[in-house]
Specification:
The chain is mainly α and about 240 residues long. The protein contains seven helices and two strands; from the N terminus they run αααααααββ. The chain has a two-stranded antiparallel sheet with strand order 1-2. It starts with a helix and ends in a 16-residue tail after the last strand. It binds zinc ion. Zinc ion (ZN) binds next to loops. Zinc ion binds next to loops.
Length: about 240
């Protein structure tokens, strides 16, 4: 058990170490992970094959250079470059695509559940529908686009992501507008209640007998001067 703990600690230290300083092992692990994820995406988006091949070819050439580098530092540098190439822009965006879709679906569900009035519900419904459509369109464009190189891949993925981001913004706007309206309404109700309570307190005060400041006699509510000494009564 102690031994296990020791190894766990050693592994943790190793991870912590590689995260702050680049090592051959760290870059090589990164490379394996990157390559695996690219291969997975390549299977999902077979129409992007040419673009993935272009990137893989470039990145693998860098990895080969790294293997025959003159020093370890040079080798690490080249491996880091290879990792940069294999996870470059369109690959990264494509990797984030599903997460973005999930975020938008969560927002759409939230917008649909938010308790608003008729016009809020209509706006939420419209935003949710357009988000559903944006997701569908973005998925279709990713699946059906004819991609012949990295530049084409960049264009298609960027525009799909932009459509998603627009839909996301629309949903966020609808939600925050409705939430603000609900807040405003609550605040207005609180203000109204406070005003009513103040008015009630004022009424009650008027109905109370008033004490003369000079002689101390109690006078009828609303009396202007003391019935006993004639002093003016300040209300
Ligand atoms: Zn008096």
């Amino acid at each position: 058990m102690k031994k296990l703990l020791f190894f766990a600690l050693a592994a943790l230290l190793l991870v912590a170490n590689t995260s702050c300083k680049r090592t051959v092992e760290g870059e090589s692990n990164k490379w394996k992970a990157n390559k695996q994820s690219v291969e997975q995406m390549r299977a999902n988006y077979s129409n992007f094959g040419a673009a993935f091949d272009e990137i893989l070819e470039k990145a693998e050439a860098k990895m080969n250079e790294a293997e025959s580098a003159s020093s370890e530092d040079q080798s690490i540098k080249l491996m880091a470059e290879a990792n940069g190439i294999i996870s470059s822009s369109f690959v990264n965006k494509l990797k984030n695509f599903d997460r973005k879709v999930n975020d938008i679906e969560d927002l759409a569900a939230k917008a649909a559940q938010i308790p608003g009035d008729h016009s809020d519900n209509d706006a939420a419904w419209v935003a949710k529908n357009s988000a559903d459509r944006a997701i569908r369109d973005a998925r279709n464009s990713l699946k059906s686009a004819q991609i012949s190189n990295v530049a084409a891949a960049e264009g298609v993925v960027s525009s799909a992501m932009q459509n998603l981001e627009r839909a996301e913004k629309r949903l966020k706007d609808v939600i925050s507008k409705t939430e603000k309206k609900i807040d405003d309404k609550e605040k207005a109700e609180e203000d109204k209640k406070a005003q009513e309570e103040a008015a009630k307190a004022e009424e009650e005060k008027k109905a109370e007998p008033v004490k003369c400041g000079y002689c101390g006699k109690m006078n009828d509510p609303g009396a202007k001067e003391c019935g006993s000494c004639g002093a003016p009564i300040e209300g």
